Amino acid sequence: MMFNNKGSGLAKLSKKSGSGFAQVKLGSTMKTSFFLLNSIVLVVILLVVWAAYSAVDEITHAEGRVVPSSKMQIVQNMEGGIVQSINVKQGDLVEKDDIVINLVSAQFTSDYASRNQQALSLMAKRARLEAEVYDKALVFTPEFTKMAPSSVANELSEYKNRAMRLRADLSVLESTYKNASDELEIIKKMVDRGLEPKLELIRTQSRVDDAKNKTESMRRQFKSDASSELSKTVIELNPLKETLPAFADKVNRTFVRAPLKGVVNRIMVNTVGGVIRPGEPVVEIVPFDDVLVVEAQIRPQDIGFVRVGQEANVKISAYDYSIFGSLQGTITQISADAISKEERGQTVYYYLARVETSTSAIKSLEKNLPIIPGMQAQVDITTGNKSVLTYLLKPLVAVKDNAFRER
Question: Is the CB of residue 380 less than 8 Å from the CB of residue 313?
Protein backbone atom coordinates (compact mmCIF):
# COMPACT_ATOMS: atom_id res chain seq x y z
CA MET A 1 0.00 0.00 0.00
CA MET A 2 2.81 2.25 0.79
CA PHE A 3 4.19 1.49 -2.66
CA ASN A 4 0.92 2.32 -4.26
CA ASN A 5 0.73 5.59 -2.39
CA LYS A 6 4.14 6.52 -3.65
CA GLY A 7 3.15 5.68 -7.20
CA SER A 8 0.06 7.74 -6.88
CA GLY A 9 2.11 10.68 -5.59
CA LEU A 10 4.47 10.43 -8.50
CA ALA A 11 1.56 10.42 -10.91
CA LYS A 12 0.09 13.51 -9.30
CA LEU A 13 3.47 15.21 -9.41
CA SER A 14 3.83 14.30 -13.11
CA LYS A 15 0.41 15.74 -13.92
CA LYS A 16 1.25 18.97 -12.13
CA SER A 17 4.56 19.26 -13.98
CA GLY A 18 2.90 18.68 -17.38
CA SER A 19 0.26 21.28 -16.66
CA GLY A 20 2.89 23.85 -15.71
CA PHE A 21 4.89 23.21 -18.86
CA ALA A 22 1.80 23.67 -20.98
CA GLN A 23 1.07 26.93 -19.25
CA VAL A 24 4.61 28.17 -19.86
CA LYS A 25 4.43 27.17 -23.53
CA LEU A 26 1.05 28.87 -23.92
CA GLY A 27 2.38 32.03 -22.34
CA SER A 28 5.39 32.07 -24.65
CA THR A 29 3.16 31.62 -27.71
CA MET A 30 0.92 34.47 -26.63
CA LYS A 31 3.91 36.75 -26.14
CA THR A 32 5.21 35.89 -29.62
CA SER A 33 1.82 36.49 -31.20
CA PHE A 34 1.43 39.75 -29.34
CA PHE A 35 4.88 40.87 -30.51
CA LEU A 36 4.12 39.96 -34.12
CA LEU A 37 0.77 41.73 -33.95
CA ASN A 38 2.36 44.83 -32.50
CA SER A 39 5.08 44.70 -35.15
CA ILE A 40 2.53 44.43 -37.94
CA VAL A 41 0.50 47.28 -36.50
CA LEU A 42 3.66 49.39 -36.16
CA VAL A 43 4.71 48.62 -39.74
CA VAL A 44 1.24 49.50 -40.99
CA ILE A 45 1.30 52.76 -39.04
CA LEU A 46 4.75 53.61 -40.40
CA LEU A 47 3.63 52.80 -43.95
CA VAL A 48 0.55 54.98 -43.55
CA VAL A 49 2.65 57.84 -42.15
CA TRP A 50 5.18 57.42 -44.98
CA ALA A 51 2.41 57.29 -47.58
CA ALA A 52 0.79 60.39 -46.09
CA TYR A 53 3.96 62.50 -46.18
CA SER A 54 5.82 61.05 -49.18
CA ALA A 55 4.97 62.86 -52.40
CA VAL A 56 5.14 61.60 -55.97
CA ASP A 57 5.08 63.75 -59.10
CA GLU A 58 1.94 63.93 -61.18
CA ILE A 59 2.94 63.41 -64.80
CA THR A 60 1.04 64.19 -67.98
CA HIS A 61 2.27 62.15 -70.93
CA ALA A 62 2.17 63.56 -74.45
CA GLU A 63 3.49 62.66 -77.87
CA GLY A 64 5.83 65.17 -79.42
CA ARG A 65 7.96 66.02 -82.42
CA VAL A 66 11.18 67.99 -82.72
CA VAL A 67 10.66 71.14 -84.81
CA PRO A 68 13.00 73.93 -85.97
CA SER A 69 13.30 76.83 -83.54
CA SER A 70 13.19 79.23 -86.50
CA LYS A 71 11.87 79.15 -90.04
CA MET A 72 13.20 76.89 -92.76
CA GLN A 73 16.06 78.52 -94.67
CA ILE A 74 15.87 78.49 -98.47
CA VAL A 75 19.32 78.98 -100.02
CA GLN A 76 19.34 80.77 -103.38
CA ASN A 77 22.03 81.84 -105.85
CA MET A 78 21.59 85.33 -107.26
CA GLU A 79 23.91 84.91 -110.25
CA GLY A 80 23.01 81.43 -111.46
CA GLY A 81 25.42 79.18 -113.31
CA ILE A 82 26.38 75.60 -114.06
CA VAL A 83 26.64 73.10 -111.22
CA GLN A 84 30.22 71.92 -110.82
CA SER A 85 29.82 69.79 -107.68
CA ILE A 86 27.26 68.98 -104.98
CA ASN A 87 29.02 68.65 -101.63
CA VAL A 88 26.14 67.56 -99.37
CA LYS A 89 23.28 65.11 -99.30
CA GLN A 90 19.90 65.11 -97.65
CA GLY A 91 20.15 64.76 -93.87
CA ASP A 92 23.72 66.10 -93.61
CA LEU A 93 24.54 68.44 -90.74
CA VAL A 94 26.24 71.60 -92.05
CA GLU A 95 27.94 74.47 -90.25
CA LYS A 96 27.52 78.13 -91.11
CA ASP A 97 29.41 79.13 -94.32
CA ASP A 98 30.00 75.51 -95.35
CA ILE A 99 30.08 75.19 -99.16
CA VAL A 100 27.12 73.04 -100.19
CA ILE A 101 27.28 73.50 -103.98
CA ASN A 102 30.05 74.70 -106.32
CA LEU A 103 29.17 76.46 -109.56
CA VAL A 104 31.42 76.82 -112.59
CA SER A 105 33.14 80.18 -112.09
CA ALA A 106 35.67 80.46 -114.92
CA GLN A 107 34.41 83.78 -116.30
CA PHE A 108 33.87 85.45 -112.92
CA THR A 109 37.19 84.16 -111.60
CA SER A 110 39.03 85.35 -114.70
CA ASP A 111 37.47 88.83 -114.55
CA TYR A 112 38.17 89.17 -110.85
CA ALA A 113 41.75 87.89 -111.15
CA SER A 114 42.48 90.31 -114.00
CA ARG A 115 41.07 93.33 -112.18
CA ASN A 116 42.65 92.34 -108.90
CA GLN A 117 46.06 91.96 -110.53
CA GLN A 118 45.62 95.35 -112.19
CA ALA A 119 44.73 96.90 -108.85
CA LEU A 120 47.74 95.32 -107.14
CA SER A 121 50.00 96.58 -109.92
CA LEU A 122 48.65 100.11 -109.52
CA MET A 123 49.04 99.92 -105.74
CA ALA A 124 52.67 98.91 -106.14
CA LYS A 125 53.21 101.75 -108.61
CA ARG A 126 51.54 104.20 -106.22
CA ALA A 127 53.89 103.12 -103.43
CA ARG A 128 56.91 103.65 -105.69
CA LEU A 129 55.76 107.10 -106.80
CA GLU A 130 55.03 108.16 -103.21
CA ALA A 131 58.56 107.11 -102.25
CA GLU A 132 59.97 109.24 -105.08
CA VAL A 133 57.80 112.27 -104.27
CA TYR A 134 58.44 112.24 -100.52
CA ASP A 135 62.09 111.07 -100.62
CA LYS A 136 61.52 107.90 -98.61
CA ALA A 137 62.62 104.32 -98.98
CA LEU A 138 60.40 101.97 -100.96
CA VAL A 139 59.34 99.08 -98.72
CA PHE A 140 56.57 96.54 -99.32
CA THR A 141 54.99 94.41 -96.61
CA PRO A 142 55.47 90.62 -96.78
CA GLU A 143 51.71 90.18 -97.23
CA PHE A 144 51.59 92.50 -100.24
CA THR A 145 54.75 90.96 -101.71
CA LYS A 146 53.11 87.53 -101.46
CA MET A 147 49.96 88.77 -103.22
CA ALA A 148 51.76 90.62 -106.05
CA PRO A 149 55.35 89.38 -106.34
CA SER A 150 55.81 90.39 -109.99
CA SER A 151 54.42 93.90 -109.46
CA VAL A 152 56.61 94.38 -106.40
CA ALA A 153 59.69 93.21 -108.30
CA ASN A 154 58.93 95.49 -111.26
CA GLU A 155 58.38 98.58 -109.12
CA LEU A 156 61.48 97.94 -107.00
CA SER A 157 63.51 97.62 -110.20
CA GLU A 158 61.94 100.77 -111.67
CA TYR A 159 62.60 102.63 -108.42
CA LYS A 160 66.28 101.68 -108.47
CA ASN A 161 66.73 102.45 -112.19
CA ARG A 162 65.09 105.87 -111.95
CA ALA A 163 67.15 106.68 -108.86
CA MET A 164 70.32 105.66 -110.69
CA ARG A 165 69.45 107.79 -113.76
CA LEU A 166 68.64 110.76 -111.52
CA ARG A 167 71.90 110.39 -109.66
CA ALA A 168 73.82 110.14 -112.95
CA ASP A 169 72.18 113.26 -114.39
CA LEU A 170 72.62 115.14 -111.12
CA SER A 171 76.24 114.04 -110.99
CA VAL A 172 76.90 115.72 -114.36
CA LEU A 173 75.19 118.94 -113.26
CA GLU A 174 76.91 118.89 -109.88
CA SER A 175 80.26 118.39 -111.59
CA THR A 176 79.51 121.35 -113.87
CA TYR A 177 78.49 123.39 -110.85
CA LYS A 178 81.66 122.46 -108.97
CA ASN A 179 83.89 123.33 -111.91
CA ALA A 180 82.09 126.63 -112.39
CA SER A 181 82.41 127.39 -108.67
CA ASP A 182 86.14 126.63 -108.70
CA GLU A 183 86.58 128.80 -111.78
CA LEU A 184 84.63 131.58 -110.08
CA GLU A 185 87.04 131.56 -107.12
CA ILE A 186 89.98 131.86 -109.47
CA ILE A 187 88.36 134.64 -111.49
CA LYS A 188 87.60 136.56 -108.28
CA LYS A 189 91.26 136.50 -107.30
CA MET A 190 92.37 137.55 -110.77
CA VAL A 191 89.81 140.37 -110.88
CA ASP A 192 91.03 141.55 -107.48
CA ARG A 193 94.55 141.68 -108.87
CA GLY A 194 93.35 143.39 -112.02
CA LEU A 195 94.32 140.49 -114.24
CA GLU A 196 90.76 139.82 -115.46
CA PRO A 197 87.95 142.21 -116.20
CA LYS A 198 84.85 142.24 -114.00
CA LEU A 199 82.80 141.17 -116.99
CA GLU A 200 84.46 137.77 -116.88
CA LEU A 201 83.54 137.50 -113.21
CA ILE A 202 79.93 138.19 -114.07
CA ARG A 203 79.97 135.57 -116.83
CA THR A 204 81.48 132.93 -114.54
CA GLN A 205 79.00 133.73 -111.78
CA SER A 206 76.23 133.30 -114.33
CA ARG A 207 77.53 129.85 -115.26
CA VAL A 208 77.65 128.88 -111.55
CA ASP A 209 74.09 130.06 -110.99
CA ASP A 210 72.92 128.29 -114.14
CA ALA A 211 74.51 125.00 -113.06
CA LYS A 212 72.93 125.31 -109.60
CA ASN A 213 69.54 126.16 -111.04
CA LYS A 214 69.71 123.22 -113.43
CA THR A 215 70.51 120.87 -110.54
CA GLU A 216 67.61 122.13 -108.44
CA SER A 217 65.34 122.19 -111.48
CA MET A 218 66.16 118.58 -112.24
CA ARG A 219 65.28 117.56 -108.69
CA ARG A 220 62.02 119.53 -108.86
CA GLN A 221 61.17 118.14 -112.27
CA PHE A 222 61.79 114.58 -111.10
CA LYS A 223 59.39 115.05 -108.17
CA SER A 224 56.90 116.93 -110.33
CA ASP A 225 56.82 114.15 -112.90
CA ALA A 226 56.44 111.56 -110.14
CA SER A 227 53.68 113.60 -108.49
CA SER A 228 51.80 113.99 -111.76
CA GLU A 229 52.09 110.28 -112.47
CA LEU A 230 51.00 109.55 -108.90
CA SER A 231 47.80 111.56 -109.39
CA LYS A 232 47.01 109.68 -112.59
CA THR A 233 47.68 106.37 -110.85
CA VAL A 234 45.36 107.22 -107.95
CA ILE A 235 42.63 108.35 -110.35
CA GLU A 236 42.94 105.03 -112.18
CA LEU A 237 43.15 102.94 -109.02
CA ASN A 238 40.21 104.33 -107.03
CA PRO A 239 37.35 103.26 -109.32
CA LEU A 240 39.02 99.90 -109.80
CA LYS A 241 39.12 99.35 -106.04
CA GLU A 242 35.46 100.32 -105.80
CA THR A 243 34.41 97.71 -108.36
CA LEU A 244 36.60 94.92 -107.00
CA PRO A 245 34.23 93.94 -104.14
CA ALA A 246 31.41 93.43 -106.64
CA PHE A 247 33.56 91.11 -108.74
CA ALA A 248 34.78 89.31 -105.63
CA ASP A 249 31.17 88.89 -104.55
CA LYS A 250 30.31 87.35 -107.91
CA VAL A 251 33.17 84.88 -107.52
CA ASN A 252 32.11 84.13 -103.95
CA ARG A 253 28.55 83.49 -105.09
CA THR A 254 29.75 80.62 -107.20
CA PHE A 255 30.24 78.91 -103.85
CA VAL A 256 26.75 78.30 -102.49
CA ARG A 257 27.20 78.45 -98.71
CA ALA A 258 25.01 77.45 -95.78
CA PRO A 259 23.68 80.64 -94.15
CA LEU A 260 23.52 78.97 -90.74
CA LYS A 261 24.09 75.73 -88.88
CA GLY A 262 21.43 73.20 -89.75
CA VAL A 263 20.36 69.98 -91.43
CA VAL A 264 19.97 69.68 -95.19
CA ASN A 265 16.29 68.96 -95.70
CA ARG A 266 16.09 69.07 -99.47
CA ILE A 267 18.38 69.60 -102.46
CA MET A 268 16.58 71.09 -105.45
CA VAL A 269 19.49 70.51 -107.85
CA ASN A 270 20.70 66.93 -108.20
CA THR A 271 22.65 66.94 -111.48
CA VAL A 272 26.26 67.97 -111.92
CA GLY A 273 26.37 70.10 -115.05
CA GLY A 274 22.81 71.28 -114.57
CA VAL A 275 21.97 74.95 -115.02
CA ILE A 276 20.74 77.10 -112.12
CA ARG A 277 18.80 80.21 -113.03
CA PRO A 278 19.51 83.46 -111.12
CA GLY A 279 17.54 83.54 -107.88
CA GLU A 280 16.52 79.89 -108.13
CA PRO A 281 16.32 77.97 -104.78
CA VAL A 282 18.98 75.27 -104.58
CA VAL A 283 19.04 73.94 -101.00
CA GLU A 284 16.59 73.87 -98.10
CA ILE A 285 18.14 73.85 -94.61
CA VAL A 286 16.43 73.22 -91.28
CA PRO A 287 18.03 75.42 -88.58
CA PHE A 288 19.93 73.59 -85.87
CA ASP A 289 20.20 75.88 -82.88
CA ASP A 290 21.50 75.50 -79.34
CA VAL A 291 17.88 75.56 -78.19
CA LEU A 292 15.79 72.55 -79.17
CA VAL A 293 12.03 72.95 -79.58
CA VAL A 294 9.59 70.07 -79.20
CA GLU A 295 5.91 70.39 -80.07
CA ALA A 296 3.86 68.24 -77.69
CA GLN A 297 0.25 67.23 -78.30
CA ILE A 298 -1.69 67.56 -75.01
CA ARG A 299 -4.98 65.67 -74.69
CA PRO A 300 -8.01 67.84 -73.84
CA GLN A 301 -8.57 65.90 -70.60
CA ASP A 302 -5.05 66.81 -69.46
CA ILE A 303 -4.86 70.44 -70.58
CA GLY A 304 -6.45 71.77 -67.39
CA PHE A 305 -3.31 70.90 -65.43
CA VAL A 306 -0.70 72.04 -67.95
CA ARG A 307 0.75 75.54 -67.56
CA VAL A 308 3.47 77.63 -69.19
CA GLY A 309 6.68 77.38 -67.16
CA GLN A 310 6.17 73.78 -66.03
CA GLU A 311 9.11 71.43 -66.32
CA ALA A 312 9.07 68.59 -68.82
CA ASN A 313 11.16 65.50 -69.43
CA VAL A 314 11.76 64.88 -73.15
CA LYS A 315 12.61 61.35 -74.28
CA ILE A 316 13.76 61.10 -77.89
CA SER A 317 12.39 57.94 -79.51
CA ALA A 318 15.48 57.47 -81.68
CA TYR A 319 17.67 56.99 -78.60
CA ASP A 320 16.86 54.42 -75.92
CA TYR A 321 15.88 56.34 -72.80
CA SER A 322 17.25 53.64 -70.48
CA ILE A 323 20.68 53.95 -72.10
CA PHE A 324 21.06 57.55 -73.25
CA GLY A 325 18.73 59.32 -70.84
CA SER A 326 16.50 62.29 -71.64
CA LEU A 327 16.48 66.08 -71.94
CA GLN A 328 15.11 68.57 -69.44
CA GLY A 329 12.87 71.28 -70.81
CA THR A 330 10.31 73.94 -69.99
CA ILE A 331 6.90 74.68 -71.51
CA THR A 332 7.08 78.09 -73.21
CA GLN A 333 3.79 78.24 -75.09
CA ILE A 334 0.37 76.54 -75.21
CA SER A 335 -2.14 76.93 -78.03
CA ALA A 336 -5.25 78.91 -77.16
CA ASP A 337 -7.65 76.38 -78.69
CA ALA A 338 -7.71 72.70 -79.52
CA ILE A 339 -6.39 71.56 -82.88
CA SER A 340 -7.98 68.72 -84.84
CA LYS A 341 -6.37 66.04 -86.95
CA GLU A 342 -7.49 62.86 -88.67
CA GLU A 343 -6.12 59.67 -87.15
CA ARG A 344 -7.25 56.22 -88.26
CA GLY A 345 -10.43 57.61 -89.71
CA GLN A 346 -11.34 59.56 -86.58
CA THR A 347 -11.02 63.21 -85.67
CA VAL A 348 -8.66 63.68 -82.74
CA TYR A 349 -8.33 66.93 -80.80
CA TYR A 350 -5.26 68.14 -78.95
CA TYR A 351 -3.60 71.27 -77.61
CA LEU A 352 -0.17 72.16 -78.97
CA ALA A 353 2.51 72.96 -76.38
CA ARG A 354 6.04 74.14 -77.22
CA VAL A 355 8.80 72.79 -75.01
CA GLU A 356 12.30 74.29 -75.10
CA THR A 357 15.13 72.08 -73.88
CA SER A 358 18.27 73.22 -72.10
CA THR A 359 20.54 71.41 -74.60
CA SER A 360 20.25 70.44 -78.26
CA ALA A 361 22.00 67.08 -78.06
CA ILE A 362 22.04 64.02 -75.85
CA LYS A 363 25.30 63.53 -74.00
CA SER A 364 27.05 60.23 -74.71
CA LEU A 365 30.35 58.80 -73.53
CA GLU A 366 31.81 58.88 -77.04
CA LYS A 367 30.14 61.95 -78.52
CA ASN A 368 27.05 64.12 -78.41
CA LEU A 369 24.13 62.49 -80.20
CA PRO A 370 22.50 65.08 -82.48
CA ILE A 371 18.76 65.68 -82.42
CA ILE A 372 17.33 66.88 -85.70
CA PRO A 373 13.92 68.26 -86.62
CA GLY A 374 11.34 65.57 -87.34
CA MET A 375 12.43 63.15 -84.61
CA GLN A 376 9.62 61.77 -82.47
CA ALA A 377 9.63 62.24 -78.70
CA GLN A 378 7.68 61.44 -75.56
CA VAL A 379 7.11 64.46 -73.35
CA ASP A 380 6.46 63.90 -69.64
CA ILE A 381 5.14 67.11 -68.08
CA THR A 382 5.28 67.54 -64.31
CA THR A 383 1.89 69.07 -63.46
CA GLY A 384 2.11 68.77 -59.66
CA ASN A 385 2.55 66.23 -56.89
CA LYS A 386 0.45 64.30 -54.37
CA SER A 387 1.05 61.95 -51.49
CA VAL A 388 1.33 58.20 -51.95
CA LEU A 389 -1.66 57.78 -49.62
CA THR A 390 -3.83 59.98 -51.83
CA TYR A 391 -2.74 57.96 -54.84
CA LEU A 392 -3.58 54.67 -53.09
CA LEU A 393 -6.96 55.91 -51.85
CA LYS A 394 -7.97 57.34 -55.22
CA PRO A 395 -9.78 54.15 -56.39
CA LEU A 396 -11.65 53.92 -53.07
CA VAL A 397 -12.70 57.57 -53.26
CA ALA A 398 -13.89 57.06 -56.82
CA VAL A 399 -15.93 53.99 -55.78
CA LYS A 400 -17.38 55.88 -52.81
CA ASP A 401 -18.39 58.87 -54.94
CA ASN A 402 -20.07 56.69 -57.55
CA ALA A 403 -21.55 53.98 -55.31
CA PHE A 404 -25.33 53.50 -55.16
CA ARG A 405 -25.93 56.24 -57.75
CA GLU A 406 -26.56 54.24 -60.91
CA ARG A 407 -30.08 54.12 -62.24
Answer: yes
Which residues span the domain enclosing 360?
A: 289-402
Could you tell me the CATH number of the domain that includes residue 86?
Answer: 2.40.50.100
292 phi, psi to nearest 5 deg:
-100, 135
Residue 300: what residue type?
Answer: P
Whole-Å CA distances, 72 to 88, 97, 268, 295, 376: 17, 16, 14, 16, 19
Asked if residues 278 and 79 have their Cβ atoms less than 8 Å apart, the reply is yes
What's the gap between Cα 20 and its chain centre?
A: 91
176 lies in the same domain as 124: yes
Q: What is the pTM of this model?
A: 0.46
Judge if 237 and 114 occupy the same domain. yes
Amino acid symbol at 327? L
State residue 91's pLDDT score. Answer: 77
Q: In whole angstroms, what is the distance from residue 263 CA to residue 288 CA?
A: 7
Q: Kindly report, residue by residue over 302-327, the tens digit of the pLDDT.
A: 898 899 999 999 999 988 888 888 88
Angstrom distance (rounded) from CA 335 to CA 360: 23
The count of other CB atoms within 10 Å of the CB of residue 388 is 16
Decide which of 144 and 34 is more confident: 144
Q: Residue 268 has what DSSP assignment?
A: S
Number of domains in the chain: 4
